[in-house]
Specification:
single chain; 125 residues; mainly alpha; Four Helix Bundle (Hemerythrin (Met), subunit A); two-stranded antiparallel sheet; elongated
Length: 125
């Protein structure tokens, strides 16, 4: 369970950081402020890029719960590329700092999700 959770979360966060690199490169090549992209939507029914980045970071919260740890807390106020990069880096540091033994029995552990009061979810599900 440790390998599945940590490697998947870390890989995703590295990809998100690479997206930010690409976005900044694109803005530099086309000579506009990259900050514009943080509030941009890829499609009308999607949330802005900054929200997409913070949501990807929030995925780690379930991994923390599976390990029996308190999930990291963030204010969700990041709007600039430096702030988004800091959020990604802190989240990556957190998940990579969780030790393998913390996931012992995680497949059977039931976690609660803040948006589903009274309901539980087991990792094996």
């Amino acid at each position: 369970m440790y390998h599945d959770v940590v490697s998947q979360c870390a890989s995703t966060l590295r990809l998100v950081d690479a997206w930010l690199d690409k976005a900044e490169e694109h803005a530099t090549e086309r000579k506009f402020d990259a900050g514009v992209l943080a509030s941009a939507r890829l499609a009308p029914d999607m949330a802005p890029l900054a929200y997409q980045v913070t949501s990807a970071c929030d995925y780690v919260k379930a991994g923390a719960r599976l390990a029996g740890l308190a999930p990291p807390r963030h204010d969700d106020t990041e709007t600039t590329f430096p702030e988004l990069r800091t959020r990604v880096a802190k989240t990556l540091s957190f998940i990579e700092g969780v030790e393998a033994h913390a996931y012992g029995g995680a497949a059977e552990r039931k976690i609660t999700l803040p948006w589903a009061p009274g309901k539980t979810l087991a990792a094996k599900d």
